[in-house]
Amino acid sequence: MEQGQKIEYEQPELAKPKEATPEEPTKLESSPARARSYLDILAIEAKKEFPPEIQALIEKRQTGGVLSPEENSLFDRTLNEWRKERFGAFPPLQSRKDGLMARLYADLSDFDKGREPERFREKKRRIIRYDESKDMYFVLSVSRMRYLEIGDILSDYAWGIKYAPDKDMPPQVARHLAKRIIINETRREIEKLHDQELIEDMLTVKGHVSIANIAGIWDKVGPKKRHKYAGFLAEAMCREYLSRVSVNQKLDFVVLRANALEDHLYKYDFIIRFLQRSRGVAVEPSEEAAQRDLKAIKKLGIQFTIASFRENVKKKKHQIARAKKAYGKDMPVDDIILMNVPTREFEEAFAKWKGGRKPSGGPEQFLSQELKDDLLKKATAGLVKV
Known about the structure:
Helix content is 49%, strand content 11%. By secondary structure, the protein is α/β, with parallel strands linked by helices. The chain has a domain at 206-386. It is globular and about 55 Å long.
């Protein structure tokens, strides 16, 4: 690709919002068809979170296929249930969610038309380049070149690191990367808004600690104060490491972030969602088949702790037992387990990452391989091959 060549792509088969003028920014129209179109974009990226029958319908829509009335009904119902579960159904901040979705579509549309999306013009974004000989992404730092996989790029957003594709990247590679970045950022921001809704709706619910705030005060406080945040940092490192490895190695599970209500009521920090497929079974997009596979999905709530004192561990176990007894089958997960990893490695890894000017790859890269293997085994034991 020549320097300055305009990136042009085939337009996606989705309804498009009205073209914006410089004086009139793109707005989200409130029709059901428009809402469905925006939701479709998120569903395509989150395809692994659905059972095989729904994945087949998503692929059918992607390739221009027309769903039958029965398939359309099943797809709509499943998509709406997923939206409510992941992003909520409360109205207070809906206009801000709509704005995020409008921006998502506008940015994808801009990229497809050869224009640089507004978000990619932010000065603090790191530029991702592409090594065609290795078919890998990389970033340049002062000291070295660092190769990244897509899971690293998505998970780094949790640590405040944002990326933009290099303008000289091959068009199809650039489009795929830009789409993944834009959708990942939009989804995480909508989840934050949903947390705000839950906190406002239930005054007893506490919000998540901000990693940006912790990083900002890290050098200003002593070891005791830092240790106060160690549990939260360890939870985030474990979650994002598992997310990286599941995406990069294409493992048969996805990692979902728990919202404030789940954290408060059900006592888990994040969710591992497994899909146990039956070998040799034909895929039929039918109501009966969808219900059968929904039962095959194993959703495991993970309560993560680095507690080393027996009484603290006992307290965590008691909290989980009370949640199971109180909510039972009403919980959005099949089971909750306590994952206890008593080590100071997480705190030390964060200090190394922060002291190293926050290199791409997050603080998880400074965890020992032994600890990484232990995290993967404990979180997936008996439910997926790793």
